[in-house]
C-alpha cells in the first residue's frame, strides 16, 4: 500500500502543535484525536507521519533535549559542560508545560541503535577527556537531578510554599554545582 501524505502536513508541524496543545491543556489532555482536531485534519492524517502517541512524546522529548544540547557553548572542561548542560536542560524543561514529566515518560521516538545513540550522547564529554561510560553516567546524573528538580519546581502549591523559604533558582544552582563537583573523573 502506498502511503499518501497530506500536502503541507509535516512531522515538525505535528510536534509543534502538540506542544501548543500541552501548553494550553496539559500533558494529560494530549491525544492524537484532539491534536488532529486542532489541526483540522483527521487523526489518520497524523498517523501517516507519526505511529502513535508514544512516538509523538519521544519526538517532543527529543526537541526539549536538543534545545538543552544547543545551550552548551565553549566549555573548556567536562565539569563546565555538565553545568552548562544542566542549566540549559532546566531552562528547556521549564519552558514547556509538563516538560519534565513528558521527558520522564517518553521513549525514543523510533527504534534506534543503542550503541550509536550512546556514542552520540557521550561525544561532547569524550571530547573533553572522559571515557564514554563515565560520560554517560555523568550526564544521566545531571539529567536525573534536573528532571526531578524541575518536576518538584512545577508543583504549584508546593513551589509557592517553598518560595517563601528559599530562592528556587539559587537552590537549583547549588544542587547542580554540588552534584557536578562531586562527580569523579573516572
From TrEMBL:
**Start and end residues of each HTH tetR-type domain:** 8-68
Molecular function (GO) terms for this protein are: DNA-binding transcription factor activity; transcription cis-regulatory region binding
Q: Name one Pfam family in it.
A: TetR_C_1
Concerning InterPro entries, the annotation shows: Homeodomain-like_sf (IPR009057), HTH-type_TetR-like_transc_reg (IPR050109), HTH_TetR (IPR001647), Repressor_TetR_C (IPR004111), Tet_transcr_reg_TetR (IPR003012), Tet_transcr_reg_TetR-rel_C_sf (IPR036271)
The protein's UniProt keywords, in alphabetical order, are: DNA-binding, Repressor, Transcription, Transcription regulation
Query: Its biological function?
Result: TetR is the repressor of the tetracycline resistance element; its N-terminal region forms a helix-turn-helix structure and binds DNA. Binding of tetracycline to TetR reduces the repressor affinity for the tetracycline resistance gene (tetA) promoter operator sites.
Name the record gives this protein:
TetR family transcriptional regulator
